[in-house]
Records
---
Amino acid sequence: MVSNPDLVLYACIASGTVILAEFTRELNLDDLAFRCIEKAPPHHSIFSHTVRKRVYMFLIEGPFVYFGIFHEDLYKSEICGFLNRLRCVFEEFLETESFKGFENFTSYCFQSQFDSTFRHLLGLNLNNTSCSVLKEAQRSSLDSSKRKQIPLISKFSNPSSLMKKKKKKKVVGDANEEAGKYAMVDSADLNDHNNGLCSRDSSLLKQKNGSHMIERQKVKQIWRKHVWVVLSIDLFVCLVLFAIWLWVCRGFRCIES
């Protein structure tokens, strides 16, 4: 659960570099977010960077990027939970609207559908609310803007598939079972993200400690070598001087006289 929604400064859903829907508290953050999405790290499923008391976090799932800008006071576990919920709702939306496999999305084509979704995500209880419940809240916005959605849907799906979907009936028990399944999967994903962040932090700490120990050992070894070199040179000089003294005095005759 997001303890303080005011700490969520920006959030968006993007396909590649095309922003499909966004939530922002400041006017200038959309340009900054676009530049960040352009430089999204490849080969990462989750990535975060903190600078100037702001956390920039990416959740990457296939071609879609779920990106947000948050205040550093918000825990990373809450940030991961928020982006994971956003991903869950968006995936259900795509399956419902028959956009699966479609790639030619336009900028802000889902903004009207997800305005209310962002608001619900910022105020809901992540532990007790499933993705299906979020979808029900999002469907209310779909009903209010039904006239605007019909042209968009007709472009990406044929009439026969839409008629078949209208004829399908959902059983209440199956819907409840699906809701419980999504809630369990989502909580498991959130725990995996949290465990991954903790293990990453602990591994970094171990690496730093190990590097410090190695540096100390190297310094000690170098110091020992220097000491042995100096002692060896002193001993060699002393032996040479002693040999010269013996040669001049022809043994110990100088001492005897």
---
Amino acid sequence: MSANANTRLRPSRGSESDESGIINERVLVLIFESIKWDIHTLCSTSSVNRKLRAIANRLLWRELCVHRAPRMVSTLASGSTNNRIGGGWHALAKLLFFCCGSESTRNFKLSRDLPGHFVKASRFSKTSGRSFLSKKCRGDLLYVSDPCEHPNPSGGGKEDDLGVYRGVFKGFLKSRTRACLIGRQVELEEKVRCPYCGAPVWSMTSARLVPKSAARRLGSHHGGLEYFVCVNGHLHGSCWLVPLSSDEDEDEDDLDLDLDDDVDGDDEDETGAHEVDHMVVSGSASSREEY
């Protein structure tokens, strides 16, 4: 048999490998759909070997985000190139499900660092995000979570709890916030990195871009908070939460409902959900290294 005939009969290794990869990806998607995209299982799967990590980075993290926060992800990804998102889908997944904790910084002092942890539920809102934008940057779109509340790590019976919050910009590279930071020649922080993608960050406190509405939204006092924004558009920060009386608690709940109900009909999906996405994570907490 001629060499040409042998070449024709021999199966293509490349096509066999590609087909195997497609089948594996389909099977993996079906498996994770059946377990409702459990975050801990996906963390474990992506750490098995390089191939599974590559599939997770290319496909599975994105699908998890879409499953858990469909409307938020649709908004963030609209207009993006090749369905990509700043920092990668794995970073967004971590931001959705992981409270990064808090460390002492030059503008926010802690006597003891607070470690990060997975959260059982998170609420991200564009309404909250608007409270974190200065007047010049109100055209930006920013999702911000409600603060994750922790007892004061200093102890000693201090009343103020520690709030840790996180968020993400849509299209940060073209945002007014980024343009303002660059225009003011704000320097990147030397000792702080984004806990979600590892990128350099700007301190919005040092840049004097923290509006008073941010403290009101968080239930803090002006000057009692700090937050950072990384070059990929991820936000993370900490604040001291002012104790509220029961009457003030009721007023705050009413305010929250009023703010979130001023959404146009176009922001509702078939279930009638507004612009706020709710994400629920079940299972025991895992360590930061799983990401």
